[in-house]
Design a protein that fits this description.
This protein is about 5% helix and about 30% strand. Residues about 1-25, about 410-450 and about 455-468 have low confidence and may be disordered. The protein is elongated and about 110 Å long. The protein has about 475 residues and is mainly beta. The chain has helices at about 115-120, 195-205, 425-430, 440-445; strands at about 1-10, 10-15, 30-35, 40, 45-50, 50-55, 60-65, 65-70, 75-80, 90-95, 100, 105-110, 130-140, 150-155, 165, 170, 175, 185, 190-195, 210, 220-225, 230-235, 255, 270, 325, 335, 355-360, 370-375, 380-385, 390, 395, 400-405, 410, 450-455.
């Protein structure tokens, strides 16, 4: 310790300098190589080393956060299995007869892998029939204001050599035949999409192919891959029911083949993508970070000793339209004229258009004679632009479609005229058709036949439907 006197503008100041014992060199004793920080997974073996030079003998004492460690009396200190308890700052005091020096502080960062990091496998084949794998599927992309079509299926060549996909085809939700000279390099990805330019513009990738009608909004989750010989080599029948990942059916995440060793038909092989919209054309990144530990842990919908007094099952609602009923009679739920929280329910909403008549099994047994008739009970024409059917028929009306007051408008699966209904005009009969649908009865569920008409959604009609 030393003292210095300084005079500044008539003021006497005494400066006292204290030595830094951890850094001050001791004659004949210094540290040449300091211990280094270590990142470790739980259970990893961790070794700290220090290289000190000085007159022997040298004594060592390792410390964790300033506390001496039992057995830490050598130039190295080892943690047999890293745990959170071993995380912290490590240093070592080195002594000899001349004095002591202290090393820099080194840390163990115990990195606990996220659930995805523990379970995800590297990209690989999912079938013994081919090295090509369906590595990612996006059936329900996030809604976009620019109306770009981003539903896709991604193929991965797990072989180290190329595969000629010429003449191969997809069926199910995607209907596409690979053109001649379609070569997929080893360990590479290829994305099949309805609108290649849309996907390339959004994701900035070039390994995109396609050009076909996009899948319907509620299309089947079946994807099949066929070789040009006609052999089916891959098939995935995904569902929005358990045990399939719920996040991949609605919010906008894709399905990624996270564990190909289970096989592509096993729900355990699939996980929701790390980000919205998926990662087409490249491996999906492993989800990492503190948010990956946030999960739904427990659900109790009916506690012991309690009974359900009432229950309701409902679908998506139109914006601002409430469902209600008379609590005394408990009739079926119906849309209300206006929301009435906390007060008596308003009267029922009079729909501008109703499903007035349908024929899904005509005597002629001809699909062309099937129809669904809409009725406008009002006094003004109603535009049907953007309206659509679901559950029995996937059909969306064109922007020019409308129904006049007190007029019926049938919707047919095909564009042929129906001679059995000569009182309908040609324009009324031929509102539109969807050549992918087939018969109404074929699209309906056999155990319950439902045809649901939805009002215009906040998006334009999809280009997947052909109209006459």
């Amino acid at each position: 310790m030393s003292r210095h006197l300084a005079v500044l503008a008539g003021l006497a100041v005494v400066l006292t300098l204290l030595p830094d014992t951890s850094a001050a060199p001791i004659p004949g004793l210094f540290i040449r190589h300091q211990p280094q920080d270590v990142a470790a997974a739980p259970g990893d073996r961790v070794t700290f080393r220090v290289d000190a030079t000085g007159a022997p003998p040298l004594w060592y004492q390792w410390r964790l956060d300033g506390s001496p460690l039992a057995g830490g009396v050598a130039a190295t200190f080892q943690v047999a299995g890293a745990t959170v308890a071993w995380a912290g700052g490590y240093d070592v005091i080195v002594r000899n007869d001349a004095g002591a020096v202290t090393s820099r502080l080194a840390r163990i960062d115990v990195q606990i892998p996220s659930p995805a990091q523990r379970t995800h496998e590297p990209p690989g084949p999912s079938s013994r029939r081919t090295g090509i794998a369906i590595s990612e599927i996006l059936l329900r992309p996030p809604a976009r204001e620019d109306r770009r079509q981003l539903a896709f299926v991604e193929l991965h060549n797990s072989n180290p050599f190329f595969e000629d996909l010429s003449g191969w085809r997809l069926s199910g939700a995607f209907d596409f035949t690979f053109p001649p000279r379609t070569i997929l390099a080893g360990n590479a990805y290829l994305v099949v999409v309805a609108a290649p330019d849309d996907l390339a513009a959004v994701h900035g990738i070039t390994n995109v192919i396609g050009g076909f009608a996009p899948p319907a909004p509620h299309a089947s989750g079946t994807v099949r891959v066929w070789k040009r010989s006609g052999a089916k080599v891959l098939e995935v029948e995904c569902s929005d029911e358990d045990p399939w990942p719920a996040a991949a059916f609605g919010p906008g995440h894709s399905l990624v083949l996270a564990r190909p060793s289970f096989g592509e038909s096993d729900p355990r092989a699939w996980a929701a993508s790390a980000r919205l919209g998926g990662s087409p054309g490249q491996p999906d990144p492993l989800p990492a970070g503190p948010l990956e530990w946030v999960v739904l842990n427990e659900i109790l919908v009916q506690p012991d000793g309690m009974r359900v007094l009432d229950a309701v099952r409902f679908r998506g609602q139109a914006s601002g339209i409430a469902l209600g009923r008379d609590p005394a009679d408990r009739p079926p739920w119906s849309p209300l004229h206006r929301p009435t929280p906390g007060t008596a329910n308003a009267g029922p909403l009079a729909p501008p258009v109703i499903i007035n008549e349908l024929l899904y099994h005509p005597p002629s047994e001809q699909d062309a004679d099937e129809f669904i008739a809409l009725f406008n009970p009002g006094s003004e024409p109603v535009s049907l632009a953007g309206w659509r059917f679901t559950d029995g028929v996937d059909f969306e009306f064109p922007s020019t479609a409308s129904t006049a007051p007190d007029r019926h408008r049938p919707r047919r699966p095909r564009s042929q005229s129906c001679l059995h209904h000569a009182h309908l005009t040609h324009r009324q009969r031929q509102v539109g058709h969807d050549p992918r649908q087939g018969a109404l009865v074929e699209r309906a569920r056999r155990d319950r036949r439902r045809w649901i008409l939805h009002g215009a959604p906040p998006r334009p009609p999809r280009g997947a439907v052909d109209y006459t």
